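Give me the 3D structure for CTP synthase.
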Amino acid sequence: MPEMKYILVTGGVISGVGKGVIASSFGTILKSCGIDVTSIKIDPYINIDAGTFSPYEHGEVYVLDDGGEVDLDLGNYERFLDITLHRDNNITTGKIYQQVIERERRGDYLGKTVQVIPHITDAVQEWVDRVAHIPVTADKTPQVCIVELGGTIGDIEGMSFVEAFRQFQFRVKRENFCCAHVSLVPMPKSTGEPKTKPTQSSVRELRGLGLSPDLILCRSEKPINHNVKEKISNFCHVAPEQVICIHDLSSVYHVPILMEAQGVVQYLNERLQLNIAMPRPGGFMKKWRNLAKRVENLRKEVNISLVGKYTQLEDSYASVTKALQHACIAAGCKLNLTYIEAVNLEKQSKINDPVGYHKAWQDLCKSEGVIVPGGFGQRGMEGKIEACNWCRETEKPMLGICLGLQASVIEFARNVLGLSGANSTEVDPNCEDKLVIDMPEHHPGNLGGTMRLGKRKTYLEPSIVATLYKKDTIEERHRHRYEVNPEYIEKLEAAGLRFVGKDETKTRMEVAIVEGHPYYVAVQFHPEYLSRPLSPSPPFLGLILASTGKLKNYLSKGCRFSPRSQSDVSSDEGDFDDEISFGNLHLSNNKNGNTLTEVNGIH
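Predicted structure for CTP synthase (603 residues):
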């Protein structure tokens, strides 16, 4: 059995520099070479997992098949690499310390003093080694594991992990371990030139901790010229080909292409002895190139409004945004997404903040489709109910997710059934009509009795949703504590709110539609978690098609696109001769390989 190869991705200067996308891009490139890849994300915070975070802390909480609540970067890995990760693919300081303390209580350390070195660092190494070998695609053991260390080098909470990898590089041998350091190269407006000192300092600090970067990936706002690359090479003790420059691009799908054009495959092939056949064929990464080109060529816009509670931080809805983008790529249109704070749609806001109130309603009225995503707590609930009411009455396409389903059910009960006291027990435990309730008897004990998490089956009845999915049994990921009260189902259905998706017990409502509406779909699960760039989530695709007026045509053709409705670069057949521009950089791709050429003296 071949030895496992590891790529450690660290970050310097600032957090949020793009380590997640770069780590995913390494995986994408290697997967295109026929190598099976897995990923691990290390978060140095003391929380056991991301489940208790406010979305304003680290963005959305991403949910895995096994119910693991993890960092949103694992969503990036799953989408880019089309793999299925597990809760153990997310390591936190809390998990490591919990494991070590449990061992100490059992007496596993035989009376020794338990310390950061060696006990914590050994636990990290053992965890990485164990999880790296777990299959993430169809029982194939991965060949390369990409490990992303969250935060920045020098953070006190990340020190034990850096030390663990300093030891790990010797444990697995040099040819099986590679360190890639992502750093920011700022360009102050006052000077107008890129500054390399932060990167030099960051690399020096990493070296001082015992890790020497094999690749330095420089993130910048604009393309960096060759002189700056040479300077980083000289001061950071690496060859020029080990300095990879990644400036801000129009879409993340361009990142793997730009990295590959700068020789990443050749370098990793030699450094990690991957035995990849070189040079790569002309059609290398063809699907990915077509995707990037297609995104670039989208022209016709579709205006979608997202009515949410955490709209001040866009990462709070990262997977929802990505799922909308995937649907737009398939439908051949460009996403124009407007975030609307749900509170601003409420009648009370007309008094408290009249400008915000009228702006929110103006944005909602301009939209061609509306999405009402999940959330927790009572703030903004009435605003979401207002949005559902407006979409239902004006026949505007709408997709409700999790709390969005609950809001749509409450709205329907109030305005169609005339139950003015209808509400959720999450918002008002003593409400007159409990349309949405906590169902603790259904909560399995191993999830702490607080949440229904992970992948569950939903059985669909014949409807627009079953047609879009092209099957009558689906598996989607869940994350919720409250659900629709079964006692009201008969009344709701008689009035025109059909529940066309239920769990195996038929007591839990999973999918609701309004009869006679062009597209009013609400789901209890989170379809965004399983959306992929080349395989969009059906409910999201339905929303985008309905918003652009293409849904009837799509359904009449048996859920197939006519070639004209898609971009002209979707073909995966034939030879691929193409050119892509990245600002001042020009990438030519043909049968002889890739060339990144200089334009206006920039390399």
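Residues 441-449, 567-578, 598-603 have pLDDT under 50 and may be disordered. Let me know if you want a second pass.
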